[in-house]
Amino acid sequence: MPNSSSLTHFLLLAFTDRRELQLLHFWLFLAISLAALLANGLILSAIACDHHLHTPMGFFLLNLSLTDLGCICTTVPKAMHNSLHNTTTISYMGCAAQLFFFFFFISAEFSLLTIMCYDRYVAICKPLHYGTLLGSRACAHMAAAAWATGFLYSLLHTASTFSLPLCQGNALGQFFCEIPHILKLSCSHSGYLREIGLLGVSACFCFGCFIFIVFSYVQIFRAVLRIPSQQGRHKAFSMCLPHLVVVSLFLSTAIFAYLKPPSISSPSLDLALSVLYSVVPPSLNPLIYSLRNQELKDAIKKMITGFRVNNKVCLLFCITFQM
């Protein structure tokens, strides 16, 4: 059995052995990644260009789009490359980098979702204190804390995982490098327990964030139901619904993937679930937010319309110049 010092690469789990289906997976992932890049790119550009979106929620949504882009760009390109070239290998350093960045962006995203919940709570339950509690400096500090938390957790977990001696082969039962599947290759009991302990600390942190989100939404719904006008209640629900849907999608897919009963586990199901929680949420988040946020939709339409007008002006200028 090879040990970690002699390992040069890992073997990722292939989606299928049939060449036709491999190419189908390539084109499917290409479409998903392009759609995610376009949607998140539009959101980033709209928020950056439209001063009406220079709000705390707009600032946090900009950061969330960056984490979504990071998640997609970390896992999908290598899966596309392997499907296109009919291979399953990833280098040892490439695996470590993929694990680091995926854990970094996922951790930062969950922290940002928790902060965005606090933003909704203050906006609805303490509207008179919104400008004080969520000023520009406070928003910058909270976003920096989210990114710093993600970096710290990913650095600790990557260093701990790849310091383990690996002697159970190099085949990972996943289409990208992930901590639980690398731990299965370890032959160090103490190192394994150390990383499990770190994962336990991370799980406690995530559970604390989950409790905070649940408590916040209980208070939010209580405040919304006390609003006398139906229009006011509808506006409040419209503010919260996109965030609630994104949080539910993020947590439900991850929890089911990691806490499903072993009796229903299978390689094909695990593969489908891994795509569900690592690829689908970052791709759908821009759609969920843009469908429910009228200001964001208006900003995107305005930006696209302005782009078309500028292109027509440039084309007319070029034709006139040539004549």
Helix/strand-derived category reads mainly alpha
Alpha plus pi helix count: 11
**Mean pLDDT figure:** 81
Helical amount? over 70%
How many β-strand stretches? 2
Order of strands across the main sheet: 1-2
Low-confidence segments: 312-323
Strand content: under 5%
Along the chain, the helix and strand elements come as EHHEHHHHHHHHH
Whole-Å distance between the termini? 73 Å
Q: Radius of gyration, rounded?
A: 22 Å
The largest pleated sheet is described as:
2 strands, antiparallel
| Spatial shape | globular
Helices and strands, with pairings:
Blueprint: E1 9-11, H1 19-49, H2 56-85, E2 89-91, H3 92-125, H4 130-133, H5 136-162, H6 179-183, H7 189-225, H8 230-259, H9 267-278, H10 280-292, H11 294-322
Helix pairs in contact: 1-2, 1-10, 1-11, 2-3, 2-10, 3-5, 3-7, 3-8, 5-7, 8-9, 8-10
Structure description:
With 323 residues, this protein is mainly α. It has helices at residues 19-49, 56-85, 92-125, 130-133, 136-162, 179-183, 189-225, 230-259, 267-278, 280-292, 294-322; strands at residues 9-11, 89-91. A two-stranded antiparallel sheet has the order 1-2. The longest helix has 37 residues, at 189-225. The chain is globular. The relative contact order is 0.13. The model is unreliable at 312-323 (pLDDT under 50).
Structure in a nutshell:
With 323 residues, this protein is mainly alpha-helical.
Defining traits:
323 residues; mainly alpha; two-stranded antiparallel sheet; 78% helix; disordered C terminus
